[in-house]
């Protein structure tokens, strides 16, 4: 009885220890999964901001038409930042596929391990209950040798079953612990290799970006700017001279227009003269017609007077 009680206590301690280990693994792996997911999101945001910066620099390079060296340097710098963004995207994808996916599986793994432990201990409890029942029978049937021998056989078989259950539990928890260690080491090494790969390429590309910016020739850009500035000043002076000369020519033409009428004005004046002439001709015709009518009337009166004189 004392031996069975000690074995029972040992099994209970093992069960408690196994449950605590599974709970700790589940908690810490969930925390790791959350932290790595947040890290990946931050890296993705940094990738997006890097792409925005590269786009702004590329737009500036395209719009710069005076400083050719600056435009070329900005174009190369923006292209290098775009390549760094591509490597940053690869880093995010690898963290998600190799680390976060592995850590997210451990909630299910721990649940299955806990269920296996629970099933194992329930089977062990059943075997222990049978053993207690057999022990009670042994106490009652101490005088009967056949009954005692049968009870001893059952007790021994139950003990063997309990030992098998305990051994199976130990193998299960050993497998779980081994997998946990291997997975944790593997994913942490993968994380280090992912970061080393990205930062190695980033150092190489940022070195190229530094060279692209350092190769910008400020003296040539300043000379080009000054040439364009001087040319624009000369053009503005020439434009001013042309405007003043045009104004003077316009003023002279205005004076000449005041002195000599334009063809249009001459045409209008001719039309006015023609209308005046036609009006005068009409008046002359009307006066002549009135004179003719008066002459005819006077001749008629004379003829009538002469006829009357002859008649008398």
UniProtKB/TrEMBL annotation:
> Basic and acidic residues composition bias: which ranges?
299-312
Give the UniProt entry's GO cellular component terms. Answer: ciliary basal body; ciliary transition zone
Sequence segments annotated as region (Disordered): 285-312
Task: Please name the InterPro entries in this protein's record.
Answer: AH/BAR_dom_sf (IPR027267), CBAR/FAM92 (IPR009602)
For this protein, the record's Pfam families field holds: FAM92 (PF06730)
Q: Which PANTHER family match?
A: CBY1-INTERACTING BAR DOMAIN-CONTAINING PROTEIN HOMOLOG
Can you name this protein?
Answer: Protein FAM92A1
Name the source organism: Cotesia glomerata
